[in-house]
Amino acid sequence: IHSAKVKEIKDNPAAYVLLGYNDTTNRSFVEMEATxxxxxxxxxxxxxxxxxxxxxxSSKEDPELCVLKVTPQSVKLMNDKSLDxxxxxxx
Length: 91
Description:
The chain is α+β, with helices and mostly antiparallel strands. It has one domain (4-90): Pnp Oxidase, Chain A. Helix content is 16%, strand content 36%. It contains two helices and four strands, in the order αββαββ. The chain has helices at residues 4-11, 42-48; strands at 14-19, 29-39, 67-78, 87-90. A four-stranded antiparallel sheet has the order 1-2-3-4. Strand 3 (67-78) and strand 4 (87-90) form a beta hairpin. It is elongated, with a radius of gyration of 16 Å. Pfam families: Pyrid_ox_like.
């Protein structure tokens, strides 16, 4: 697992994940503050593997394949026109 992104995550596992964000629209989206862990457990990879993953990896035994485990610390509903401020939930 020798990608620049994996190295970046290992060096700094703190992240923000945006769900439903599109910079061309003004719609609501979810912002998640989280930590990310690189998982190489073959049982986890086997459990998550789907046929279409062959578009990116030769097989589920590919040594460059990993899973990114995202553990949220807080979640915010952002950019909702009916709200004065974002709704934040600390987990």
